[in-house]
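Example for tutorial group B:
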């Protein structure tokens, strides 16, 4: 049930009858983590489950955490998971168990996790998933520098960097580092929309946490908006652009950029109005 996804659905049904959906999900995660710990100590069980661990669905991340927390030789177990992933058809691969494994290992062996990630972003198979693996353990300064190096390689699919737009993934990244990352992603083929979403999520998180926007984040937003080509009928992008515009294009420095949008015919009327009006505001940016 951990690999099929049926277990959380069954528990959800039970707890929905009692009006407690969160409890069902917490129980599913706890059961998967416990099972992962049990399998880590059972070589036969681990070997038989290995192919499904890199292709299955369900509570794999929690299962992977349990594996790492109980493994007697976590690096050897990691290597077996990676080898199995490499032997799996590209279209069938999933790395959720690997993300969970790193998360479970990070608390007790952070240096080993850093060593694993230093290898991962340069690996022919794991490199395709590197941003997903990095965000599973948070992004400290070493992780930020590693992300920059991974971008410089140019071999990681740009879509993989969308993991940086998930939740509060970029919160620990300094304003200057975020600016460099976002603008580098924006320059990649098909990377502009992903850069917009990363920038939007950072600004949204800052506002939600009542933090001032770093000046470098404001600069990044202005540079992105200055090179924007709007896509019609894209509600998600429109909302993200409005958030970025309100945060980055107020005040004197951003007014000229904002006012240019009000005149661009390739924008819809609603979008030109929403972005262009920001240029008329003299909002002081903090």
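The residue assignment follows.
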């Amino acid at each position: 049930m951990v690999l099929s996804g049926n277990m959380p659905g069954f528990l959800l049904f039970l707890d929905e009858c009692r009006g407690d959906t969160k409890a069902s999900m917490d129980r599913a995660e706890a059961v998967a983590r416990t099972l992962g710990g049990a399998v880590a100590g059972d070589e036969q069980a681990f070997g038989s489950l290995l192919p499904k661990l890199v292709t299955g669905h369900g509570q794999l991340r929690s299962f992977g955490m349990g594996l790492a927390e109980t493994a007697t030789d976590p690096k050897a177990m990691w290597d077996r998971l990676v080898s199995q992933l490499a032997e799996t058809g590209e279209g069938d691969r999933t790395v959720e168990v690997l993300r969970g494994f790193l998360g479970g290992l990070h608390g007790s062996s952070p240096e080993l996790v850093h060593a694993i990630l230093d290898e991962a972003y340069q690996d022919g198979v794991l490199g395709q998933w590197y941003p997903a693996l990095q965000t599973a353990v948070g992004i400290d300064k070493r992780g930020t520098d590693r992300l920059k190096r991974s971008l410089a390689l140019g071999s990681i699919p740009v879509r993989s960097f969308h993991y940086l737009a998930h939740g509060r993934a970029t919160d620990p990244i300094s304003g200057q580092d975020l600016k460099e990352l976002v603008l580098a992603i924006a320059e990649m083929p098909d990377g502009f929309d992903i850069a917009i979403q990363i920038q939007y999520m950072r600004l949204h998180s800052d506002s939600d946490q009542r933090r001032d926007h770093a000046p470098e984040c404001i600069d990044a937003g202005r540079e992105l908006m200055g090179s924007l080509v709007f896509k019609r009928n894209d509600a998600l992008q429109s909302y993200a652009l409005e958030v970025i515009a309100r945060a980055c294009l107020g005040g004197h420095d951003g007014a000229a950029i904002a006012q240019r949008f009000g005149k661009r015919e390739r924008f819809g009327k609603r979008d030109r109005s929403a972005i262009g009006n920001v240029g008329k505001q003299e909002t002081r940016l903090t």
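Confidence is low (pLDDT under 50) at residues 10-14, 264-274, 279-286. Compare this with the pattern of hydrophobic and polar residues in the output above.
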